[in-house]
Every structure is written in structure tokens, then in C-alpha cells.
Prior knowledge:
This protein has a single domain, classed as Aminopeptidase, CATH 3.40.630. 33% of the residues lie in helices and 34% in strands. It has helices at 20-28, 33-36, 46-58, 106-121, 136-144, 173-180; strands at 10-13, 65-71, 74-85, 90-97, 126-132, 148-159, 162-172. Coenzyme A (COA) is lined by residues 32, 35-36, 77, 95-97, 102-108, 131, 135-138, 140-141, 144. Residues 10-174 form the N-acetyltransferase domain.
Amino acid sequence: MLSVSDSPTVTLRARTDDDAEVLYHLAADLETWEERSPAMPAPLTRSAYEARLAARDGDSADRAVNFVIDADGAAVGTVGLFDFDDLARQAEVGIALIAEARGKGIGTAALAQIVEFGFLRCNLRRLHLELIASNAGALRAYEKVGFVVEGRQREHAWVRGHYEDNIVMGLLRSEWASRRA
Ligand SMILES: CC(C)(COP(=O)(O)OP(=O)(O)OC[C@H]1O[C@@H](n2cnc3c(N)ncnc32)[C@H](O)[C@@H]1OP(=O)(O)O)[C@@H](O)C(=O)NCCC(=O)NCCS
């Protein structure tokens, strides 16, 4: 099991072959499936995961920005931007950390970096995301980097035996710039 220090240096970088094991286990983790994905939970084989990555890497039309989250030199998760809207200059944010890396400020640090990347490097003017209402850690991490709740889809998600609200959050570049000033 990977040990992660209590205040690691967090950077975003490209995926390498050495990250494959950690990232596969994160993608296949059924414990946090509903937190990470609106798709129906199902076992994910290594070969299906690798085929998905290969298809994504080889798809020149896929405009997603996918980073590995690195803590003190080890891959501990992924963060990225997807569903780019070139006309409205907005995109969606996604993030997931392995269990050993949660609750140490890594998610907040990675989100701050992807938000800056989205606004300053991709010239986006709005970012948005969704989460299930019980995901208190995610809600707090998103609020800490400036996202605000924009809406609530009542009983939108089926989560391990019950319905849950889905929360929609957004952050404008102007708001983010004001916070930084
Ligand atoms: C959600 C996630 C990215 C948050 O990253 P993290 O590194 O664990 O969060 P941080 O350590 O930066 O904590 C951010 C804030 O949330 C709080 N927090 C963290 N986990 C919490 C929990 N389970 N319940 C309540 N608050 C929590 C922290 O105390 C901190 O707030 P504070 O600074 O005011 O004390 C991470 O936990 C994760 O990947 N979870 C599994 C996948 C997932 O849920 N992805 C998000 C999909 S929408």
C-alpha cells in the first residue's frame, strides 16, 4: 500500500507507464464508483481499462485535458477537464484520488492547479462540475477553490440503495481572478 505524507508536494503531470497499476485500481474502485461516475457500477477489467485509455489517447477529436496528480513523486489520482464548449469557453472538471491520499489537502491543491490551467492556459471563462450530495469532502474541496452551488437535481442519482440529490457547481474566471487579486 502506498504511503502518502501528511503535507506532500502536489504537482500535475502526464501519465506514464509506471502509473498504470495505481490508476487502474482507482478507475475500477467500486467503493467510490457513484462518487466518481454517473455510469452504472460494474467490474472494470484491466484490459477494458487499457483499451479505453488507448482509444482516448488515439482520438484526436477528444479535447479532454487529463493530468495525473503526483504527490511527492508518486501517482495518487487524476484530475482533468472534459466536455469543452469552444463557443461558450467552458468545460467540466473531474477529480479522483486513491483512498490513501484523501483528506490531506491534495485534492484542494490539485483543483487549484487545474482551475488555473483551465482559465489561464485553456482560456476558459467558466468551469463546472457535479457531485452527489453526500460527498462532503468533494463539496468542501470545490468550495475552497471558489466553486459555488448553482443547482440541485433532486433524487437524481441512485447511490448504493437510495436516491440522492445531484449538486451542480460552477466557477467563473472573473470570480476566480477576484479571489486571487
Ligand atoms: C473528493 C476529493 C477529490 C477531495 O480531495 P481530498 O484531498 O480528499 O480533500 P482535501 O484533503 O483537500 O479536503 C478538502 C476539504 O474537505 C474536507 N473534507 C475532506 N474529506 C471530508 C469528508 N469525508 N467529510 C467532510 N469533509 C471532508 C477537509 O477537511 C477540507 O476542508 P477544511 O480545509 O475546511 O478542513 C477526494 O476525497 C476523492 O478523490 N474522493 C473520491 C472520489 C471523489 O469523490 N471524487 C469527486 C467526484 S465529484
